[in-house]
Amino acid sequence: MFKKVLIANRGEIALRINRACRELGVKTVAIFSEPDRESLHVRHANEAFCVGPGPVARSYLSIPNIISTALITNCDAVHPGYGFLAENARFAQICADHGLTFIGPTPEVIGTMGDKATAKRVMREAKVETTPGTDILESVDKARRAAKDLGYPVLLKATAGGGGKGMRVVTGPDELERAFAGAQNEAESSFKDGRLYMEKLIVSPRHIEVQVLGDNFGNVVILGDRDCSVQKPSHQKLIEEAPAAHLSEKIRNSLYAMALRAAQAVHYTNAGTLEFLVSGDHAYFMEMNTRIQVEHPVTEMVYNIDLVKEQIRIAAGEALGYTQSDLRPRGHAIECRINAEDARNNFAPAAGTLTNVVFPGGPGIRVDTHIYSGGTVPPFYDSMLAKIVAFGETREAAIARMERALRETVIEGVNTTIQQCLEVLATDAFTSGHYAIDFLPGLLRQADAA
Amino acid sequence: MPGNNVVERVRSLVVAFLDTDLVRLRIERDGGHVELRRARSRSATPELAEPQAPDAPPENVDAIKSDLVGIFRFSRPLPQTGDMVDSDRELAYVEALGIRNPVRSIGSGRLVSVCCDDGQPVEYGQTLFEIQRV
Q1: Interatomic CA distance for residues B97 and B95, integer angstroms
Q2: Nearest CB partner across the interface for A50, out of B71, B96, B125
Q3: How many domains does chain B have?
Q4: Is B45 contained in some domain?
Q5: Chain A to chain B, count of Cβ pairs less than 8 Å apart?
Q6: Which of A226, A263, A284, B51 has the most neighbouring CB atoms within 10 Å?
Q7: B94 within some domain
Q8: A28 touches A4 (CB < 8 A)
C-alpha cells in the first residue's frame, strides 16, 4: 500500500479521496490555489501546498507545481479525482516518469479513450455498438456529405470534448455551416483541439452508464448501471440514480456484456465508466470516462462498496478481492447535485460567501460536500457545492427520502439548484421513472412559458 | 518552564534586534511567528507585534515571493538581513523538478527579512525575502 498520496484536486472530491486514504492508513498531501486556502480539503490533509493563484491554468492544471509538490513531500502516488488532470494522458505519463503511481488507468488507455473518435473505432472493433457516425471531419464539405448519408438530425461533436462543449445539434443542411464553425471554435477554445466528428442524433434517448473496475491481473467486474438522464440544457447532469428504472433485462444484459468486452479489449485497469445512449431496444456506446465519476456514490450505496478505496488498492497492485458473482446490488440510490447556480437564469453560476449552511441527516442520507457556513464560493471553479445522496429499499422510498433531505437543506448566500431538484422529483415523469435526456430542458421550457 | 523559555528567547531577540539597523524582523517557526518592528517615532524600544495580528507591511517594503513549488536554497554570497542588494542580485533559488529557478532581488534596497531556511520546501506565493526599497 502507498505511504503518501497527493490529491490533485479540490472541493468535495478532494475530501472524498482524503477520507478513503485516511481510512486506509495512507497519509495525504493536498494542493490548493490561493482562494482555496481555507477549504476543508486543505484542513483535513496531513500536508497542504499552495500551487498557484485562482485561475485553474496556473494552479490545479499546473503540472510542474503539482509534480514538484508530490516529489518534495515524498508522495508515492497521485489521485487526480475527476475533471482537471484526471483524463490527461500526458499528466499520467509524467507521473510515471517521476516514479509516481497515477491512480487510474495507464496513459495509453487514457489517450485511446480520451480521443472520442479513436475510442469509437476501438469499441467497434470490440463489437460494441456505437452511434452511426464518422471519423474526424476535415471540412464543412465533408460534414455536409456525411450528414446526407446519415440523415438529419445529426450531432457535431468535438473529438477532445466533454461536458457538452463543442457540440451542436444540426436539424437540416441550412444550419450545418454555422454549427460547424461554432462547434469548431468552441472546441478550439475549450480543448485547444478543434477537430470534429459527426453522429446520427438519437432522438430522446436515455443516458445510461455502466461502472467497471479492473485490476492489474486481468480481472474486470461490472458494478451495475446508473441513469443520468436528468440533464441541464448544457448536457450536464443534475440528478442520477442507480439502478436505472424500467431497463429491460435484455438491454441491461447487453449493456453489461458490451462494457465487459470494451474493458477487456483495452486491458482496462482501475475505475471507469462507459456511457451509452439507450433508445427503445438499442444501446449505443457514447464514450468512456477513464476516472472516478461525480455520481459514483449512488453505485457505492447500492453495492455497499467504496470505489475510491478500490481505486487506491488496485493502483497499489492489489487484486480485486471478489468476482462478479459476489456482487449483488441492493435497494435504490439517488443523487442530487446542489450547484451554486440560478436555475431560472439558464443555470448561471454564482459566487460569493455562504452565510448559512445546514445539511440533512438521518437514515439513508449521505452528503459529500466541501462547503461550510462562512466559507466562500470562488468564481474560478465548477459550481457544485454538494452531492446529496438518498438510499431506499425501493425507488419510491429513495425519492421520498431525497425530498425530505432536500427540504432539510439550507444554503444561504448564493442561488442553488435545490428548488430545481425538488421540482424534478415532484413530476410524474420522474416518479414514474419514464424520462429521457430531453426531460429537464422540456420542464424548463414549460416553466418559462407559464 | 517552556513559557519562561519563550520569554527569555524573545527578550534576547529584542536585544539583538536593537543592536542592528533593521526596521522589521520576522521569524516563522512551527506555524507561529514573532515579529519585531521599530516604532515609527524612531524610539529606542521596538514594538513587539501581537503574534496573530494581521500583517501591515511597512512602507516601501516589497515581499519577494515564490512563484513555484520546490526546495529553497540560498545563493552565494549568503544573503543576510541588513545587506544592501543591487537591482538584480540572485539571492536564492528554488529547485523544482531538478531545475534551479533563481530568486532575484528585483530592484535594489536593504534586505529586511530572510523568511526561509536553506533546504526548506516552499509553496507558491510564499514570502522568501522582504526588501526595503531605498
Answers
A1: 7
A2: B125
A3: 2
A4: no
A5: 40
A6: A226
A7: yes
A8: yes
Domain shared by B22 and B70, yes or no:
no
Residue range A46-60: average pLDDT? 97
Contact between A65 and B71 using a beta-carbon 8 Å cutoff:
no
Specify the CATH number for the domain of residue B110: 2.40.50.100
What cell does A71 get? Answer: 516529489
Scan for cell 456525411, then name that residue: A146
More confident residue, A159 or A176: A176
Helix (H) or strand (E) holding A12: helix A11-23
The string of DSSP letters for A17-84 reads HHHHHHHTT-EEEEEEEGGGTT-HHHHHSSEEEEEE-SSGGGTTT-HHHHHHHHHHTT-SEEE--SST
**Tell me, what amino acid is at B52?**
Q
Per-residue burial over A360-392, b if 16 or more Cβ lie within 10 Å, else e, is beeebbbbbbbbeeebbbeebbbbbbbbbbbbb
Which of A63, A68, A71, A98 to probe the B interface (max B CBs under 10 A)? Answer: A68
Each residue of B43-92: pLDDT tens digit? 333 344 444 445 565 678 999 999 999 999 999 999 999 999 998 899 99
Do both B116 and B66 map to the same domain? yes
In a domain, B54, yes or no: no
- Do residues B65 and B127 share a domain? yes
Same domain, B79 and B125: yes
- H-only helix segments in A115-210: 116-125, 140-150, 176-191
In a domain, B33, yes or no: yes
Are B71 and B30 within one domain?
Answer: no
- SS3 assignment, position A328: coil
DSSP string across A241-293: EESPTT--HHHHHHHHHHHHHHHHHTT--EEEEEEEEEETTEEEEEEEE-S--
| Residue B42, pLDDT score | 33
**Chain B contact residues (CB < 8 Å to A):** 68-71, 96-97, 121, 123-126
Phi-psi region of B110 (alpha: psi -120 to 50; beta: other; left: phi over 0): beta
Closest residue, chain B, to A34 (C-alpha):
B125
pTM of the full structure: 0.85
Are residues B122 and B90 part of one domain? yes
Mean pLDDT, chain B, as a whole number? 79
* Domain, as residue range, for B23: 2-37
Same domain, B32 and B78: no
Whether residues B32 and B65 fall in one domain: no
Cα A171 to Cα B120: distance, rounded to the nearest angstrom:
61
